[in-house]
Amino acid sequence: MASEKDAQTIARDTAAKGRNVAEDTTRRMAETAAETTQRGADTASDMMGKATQVAGQVAGQTTDQLNRMMGLSAQAQGEVAQQARENMDVMTQCGSVLMDGMQSIMREWMGFAQEAMARNAEGINAMMRSRSVQDLYAAQSSMVKDEMELLLNRSVKVSELSAKTANDAVRRLNARAEGAARHVRRSA
Question: Which residues form the Phasin domain (predicted)?
Answer without folding.
Answer: 80-176
